[in-house]
Amino acid sequence: MKIKDLPEECRPRERAMKDGISNLSLEELLAILIGKGLKDLSSKEVALNLIKKSKTASNLVNISYNQLLEIKGIGPTKAIELLSALELGKRIYLKVDNNQKMILKCAEDIYQYMKYLFYEKKQEYFYCIYLNSKCEVIERRLLFMGTINRSIAHPREIFKYAYLNSASSIICVHNHPSGNIKPSREDIRLTESLVELGKVNSIPIVDHLIIGNSTYYSFYEDGKILNL
């Protein structure tokens, strides 16, 4: 049944105006975002297929562009619109403001700046933050994605973008999906290697954070990086 064929009081937009947006079901919220369906498929049916694809509401946070395109009734434009809405909701919920000029002076600053990027992630993501001489963020770049228990970060890529950005220093950040923030032997070896390369290139690694469930480990705070 098409949305227009539903009784007016059952249509998602009309229900939102009458009962308030917070009283809508997940299906109805998604139907509003999806807008128009297809000739033989209503927006509510597309929404139901999206819910089946993600299995749970929380999994929608990590749904990808390509996964959205697999759903009948969602094309490239609609996929980007949905991803934008999900990203906006995530940033509002986690109180992220990327419009400010970010200055990172301690591990807590870094954690607050980066934590939302790892929200509900099921595999490792390795980011580098490139700073100028005032500790202001020039660029934040995702360099590597790994399996649930392993990521491979290559120093060549890390320092390449430092030169391209004329960065004065680098911060590395990655997550442990398990929630355990204790550095692995690979984490320690990589950090030691990057610190030495930073000294050689005069672009120091000022910290390396491991982010877990609502907490973090800082190599600098633990005394493992001593170049500040």
Description:
- This protein is an alpha+beta fold.
- The chain is built from eight helices and five strands; from the N terminus they run ααααααββαβαββ.
- The protein has a five-stranded mixed beta sheet, sandwiched between helices.
- Helix 2 crosses helix 3.
- 26% of the residues are buried.
| Total count of domains | 2
Q: What fold name stands as the CATH topology of the largest domain?
A: Cytidine Deaminase, domain 2
Summing up helix and strand content along with how strands pair, one would put the structural category as alpha+beta
Order of helices and strands: HHHHHHEEHEHEE
CATH architecture of the largest domain: 3-Layer(aba) Sandwich
The number of strands is: 5
Q: What best-fitting shape do the alpha-carbon axes yield?
A: elongated
Helix content: 25-40%
| CATH top-level class of the largest domain | Alpha Beta
Short description:
This protein is α+β, with helices and mostly antiparallel strands. 38% of the residues lie in helices and 14% in strands. It folds into two domains: 3-93, DNA polymerase, domain 1 (Orthogonal Bundle), CATH 1.10.150; 107-218, Cytidine Deaminase, domain 2.
